[in-house]
Amino acid sequence: MKKTxxxxxxxxxxxxxxxxxxxxxxxxxxxxxxxxDSLLQRPGLLSPDIVIIGIDEESITRLGPxxxxxxxxxxxxxxxxxxxxxxxxxxxxxDALYTGETGEADQMLTAAAEKLPHVITxxxxxxxxAYELGSEGRVVSxxxxxxxxxxxYEALRAATVQGHINVMYDQDGIMRHxxxxxxxxxxxxxxxxxxxxxxFEAARIYLEEKGITIREPEVNARGQFYIPFSxxxxxxxxxxxxxxxxxxxxxxxxxxxxxxxxxxxxxALQDAYFTPISRSAAMYGVELHANVIQSFLEGNHxxxxxxxLQLAVLFAVSFLLAMVLLRGRLKRTxxxxxxxxxAGPAAALLLYQAGYVIHPLWLPAAAxxxxxxxxxxxxxxxxxxxxxVTRTFERYVAPEIVQEILRDGTESLGLGGNLxxxxxxxxxxxxxxxxxxxxxxxxxVWILNQYLAMTSDCVTMYQGTLDKFVGDATxxxxxxxxPAKDPAGQAVRAALEIRKRAEELFGRLKGEIGEELRVGIxxxxxxxxxxxxxxxxxxxxTAIGDTVNTAARLEAxxxxxxxxxxxxxxxxxxxxxxxxxxxxxxxxxGKAEGFEVLILHELRE
Length: 605
What we know:
There is one protein chain. The chain is α/β, with parallel strands linked by helices and 605 residues long. The protein folds into three domains: 3-28 and 305-390, no CATH class; 48-300, no CATH class; 410-603, Nucleotide cyclase, GGDEF domain (Alpha-Beta Plaits, 2-Layer Sandwich). It contains 18 helices and 22 strands. The strands form six sheets. Strands 15, 16, 17, 18, 19, 20, 21 and 22 form an eight-stranded mixed β-sheet that branches. The radius of gyration is 46 Å and the shape is rod-shaped.
């Protein structure tokens, strides 16, 4: 396995582990729940079999403060529901606690309940933490133990079915779950066993009357199940108040054969909860029961997929996405991250329709974080690459040219080759081959490095492009990759500087090498192809063409300490150049007769 591939695997593994750990720690919990609620909990068609009779503001106004009501008020409401034997409700569920005996009104309420086919009265479990000795002798705590239980007084309990009205918020204060049952220990009243919720009992009795067996939803260790809401706050309320029921203002056809819920629908009674279907408005408890009953009637149960399984999927997807992001280009990276981000909510919607609840934001959050990391990595690598290219390119051209190229963009490099007008310089040491045969290799390399460093410094000093070193020869040109105002002038100044410094360098080395070396230099001006030459695996930024060949021929024929230039260079310099024409007495290989060669002495200001 390649080192880069192994590194990418480790990096992807680390990123996937980090995201999985963050998610498991609850980093996206609140945002995920908000997205889950907005995406999954949508209003639907309401069941016509559920009717709510509200203890509302109108009832309080007409019947007096709720706290002053005795049980005869509810008895009157039940008697009104039983007034027409041909239009009895199938089930009546009363969302109110009637604990302890109070007197004659108790008998009225019990008698009224007995006139109806099925009445469910509320009970309430008090949850708390219990401690017990575990199997290994350690103390184990259970924070969801039923420590107390409130239920209807004995006579009413015997005449009705009891269903608990307990509710429990999620950590963010939203009511997403119902409590299916409470395991109640033995009490003074002799109650023992599992007590189901009021909503469950109402739906169970109604379905059994129709010959249908109710199906229980899957619950967690606390006996909780996910509620798929059908109605928003107020959707189930049709204006049927308890006062109107008692006064006979509501037709029995409204409740005939249906489930009737009676419960508080007034803000003053403080029986309202925030639900996922509407976070901005509270839903009365009796409406909450209606939503749960409808889900039981429809068999619309949702199973929350295990967080452990979802974390495993998140880790696998994050790892694969990280590998794609590490190996792909930025555009491909964006598309891959977008695909994963869309897949999360899309999968949540599809699975919800199939009866499963997952976290819709986990995958999009992971994709976004990985995309941000990939973009940061991309630009960091680009910055490092730019820095590397800059350092490399500065070895060939002056820093000022490098900065200009980076400022203008890569287009100024003319990738692939452009026709440019350039001045080309070649310089070579006369007699170096014989010297290298005489001296030790280490000494030759030491001398050569000092000489080549000197020539490259001179080229850089006059903003030239250092093309290559070939043995003891140096090639440079002016006018590319960026155009130059005076390529011939800069090339000639560099040539004069090289000759001067070569004399100084070889003068210092004369004692060590036993002889004085000189350089021959050739400069020509003309068109050439400049750009990246070679193959995909190996490229050189260089110049090719007759202009380059001619400059090389001029250098090859120049005696030590002499600078040969062409007529094109001399004409470009004009009166500034002190030159001596040799006419066509110097025959250059590959050039026709009549090619004029000139000796450059100096440049005048």
